Every structure is written in structure tokens, then in C-alpha cells.
């Protein structure tokens, strides 16, 4: 096992994967999004609390999460949105996200990459006020046959209080 | 029971009474509002059972309970090792009987604190787990609240069960919960709809008459607890209990 060598072509390919993934979510092509996930995907959005400067403990919880999902529970969420009775997303939330500051680092496994990225997400619904969500994502991408799949994602929000009535979108 | 981690906090565009009233025991919104859950198999069909209870006229507090038959030991569906640890001798026979037969319950402690105890799934193909959610509906203004949601699991349960049950709780009763997502959307849309020109011109009023005479269910004569209990969840005495108590306090002030 040897770590994957990081080249500028590889970094570009990782960025293109994340941009493509973001487009499936902004376009509400959720089944296309599911197809970008590994079957053993681990998806988490920990809660966050404010801590003082120099605190020994991270503000991100290791126990509590806004979302903690595997492929089965993510698929169930998408199937729910397919029904005629998922009122949270009918009419759908409008989102537009900017993904940037992509950093690719090798990991021990010869078919995986650690990819960090930042995001700003504009969200609006009906005629309501809009919200901005911001955060960083720590992803592990699995590389197979020149393509990527998301193996794990931890979404680190800048928010301690979710500034909206629900989290019915994927980050 | 023990709290898992930190509470979820989120901003909802609704009055604090929306959540408190819903958790008082709005038992009949589930069939329609949460129909997506039955369609994909996250819950069974919502049914009205012969042993259901609504508890009303209780100083503003109100509760809705689903119960199994009198001779079934269910204890909210908790695992057997958790049930074995319950200190049954601390309860009166009537309290023990109620705990024994309890499938789920939801209620509001007047004015703005609520709970829901329920069995929930995060994946239709995996078993359900018991979870307790505690709520604080914290007003920011007349039109906005900060919701605090604590999820609790049995303290003596195995670490695996606690994590599993927590996941079921997040996937059902949290800002991302498959059930909660739809509840909070409605709480925000009620005041919007009520404030429309159409609502004003047509003098639209919400109807809260379900369960009033002559269609009122009979009270349970030997109910051991406080309040008046009815053996049906298809009535609105629970919401009237909450709202009437609030109105009494406001008028007295």
C-alpha cells in the first residue's frame, strides 16, 4: 500500500468532483447525488458550542449531531422527498453553494484521499428571508477507476444555532 | 436517562405556542402531515388504538399516550436489559401499570417545555429504537423562537444501543428529522396563512371543536392520575387545555 501521489491534475479532478457534487444538490438531483456516495459512507454534521480561547475541548461535539447518517438513512431521506407528502421540501428550498479552498492530502490507503473544502451556501424558501450557511468539510474520497466516491464527510458548521427552521438539505 | 452531548438549537419563524400546542397532543395531524414516513416504511400506519389516552384539564399541561393492551409489557419498547433495571418498587401499582403499557407519549409541561417518547427508525430496513426528546420553546419575539432539543437515552443501556437510539432520534426528532422537518414548516406557515388578506376578509378561524359535546368521548372514570383522561386521541381537549390556560393567565394579567 502506497499513498496516492498528489499532482495538480489530481487536485483539479478532486475540485471538479466537488463542484459536480454541489451541482447535483443545488439542482435537487438527489438520486444522482446518492450515486456519488460509497455504500459504506459515513456522513456527520456535529453540533457546535462556543468555547473560550484556549479551551482544551473542541467546540464541535463528539457525541451530538445535526445529522449522523449512513447510506441507508441518506437513501431513506431521499426516498421521503420522492413522496407527495414531504412538505418540508414542497415547494423545495432553493440553494446555491460555492465550494472553495480545496486542499488535497494523501492518506495511508492507496485508494483514498483526504479532501478539505470550505463552503458558503445561500438558502431561501417561498418568499421568506434568505439564510447563509458557512462551514468546512472534511471528506475522504475513494478513488476507483479514475472516478471518485464520497467515503466520509464531516461538516464543521460556523453556526452554534441553526439559523433556519429545518435542515432538509444536504451539505 | 441521560442526555447525549449538547442540545440541537435552531431558529423557527413561529410563535412559541405553536410547538407547545402541537406537543400537547395533536394526535391527528400525523396521518396526513407525516404520511411520507408511512409511505417509505419509517413508521407503521398511524392508527387510533382502543387503549389510547388523552389527558386534559391539568393546569395547562396536557398529554397524549399510546398504550398496548392491559396485559402486555412494553415499557416504551426499551431493550430487556434496560427494562430489567427499572426500579419498579418506587412506583405505585397504577403508575407501574401505566409505564408497563406505554408505547409512546407526547406532552407539554405548561407553558413552553415539551417531551416526546417514541420508537423511531433512521432506516426502513433496520429496527426501531426508543428515544426521548425534551424541548424548550424559547421565545425571541412574538414571531420567532429558539428551539432547544435534548435527546436522551437510558443510562444503563449498552454504548451500542445508545448510539443507535441517538441516530434514530436525530433522524426523526431534530432539525434534520424526517418527522420534524415537516412539523416546523407548518408551524411557520400557520401565522403566514392567518395573516393573509383572504383570511381577514373571510374571517377565517381555526376550529378546535373536536371532542366537544355531543361528539365528546367518555372520560375514563377510574383514571389514577390528575386531570381528565379520555380513551381517544381523536379529540382536541389537549390543545384547548393548553390554550385556555394561557388565555386565563393573560386575561387575569
Share of helix of chain A, binned: 10-25%
The CATH class assignment of chain B is: Alpha Beta
Domain module count of chain B: 1
Structural class given helices, strands, pairing of chain B?
Answer: alpha+beta
Shape of chain B: globular
Q: Looking at the structure, what is the overall shape of chain A? A: globular
In the CATH hierarchy, the architecture of chain A is Roll
**Oligomeric nature of the chains:** heterodimer
Termini separation of chain A (Å)?
Answer: 32 Å
Structural account:
The complex is a heterodimer of chains A (171) and B (253). Helix content of chain A is 21%, strand content 43%. Chain A has helices at residues 8-26, 30-34, 71-82; strands at residues 37-48, 60-69, 94-106, 112-124, 131-144, 147-157. In chain A, strand 3 (94-106) and strand 4 (112-124) form a beta hairpin. With 253 residues, chain B is α+β, with helices and mostly antiparallel strands. Chain B has one domain: Naphthalene 1,2-dioxygenase Alpha Subunit, Chain A, domain 1 (Alpha-Beta Complex), CATH 3.90.380.10. Helices cover 31% and strands 25% of the residues of chain B. In chain B, strand 3 and strand 4 form a beta hairpin. The longest helix of chain B has 16 residues, at 237-252. The chains are: A alpha+beta (171), B alpha+beta (253). Chains A and B meet through strand 2 and helix 3 of A and strand 2, helix 3, helix 6 and helix 7 of B.
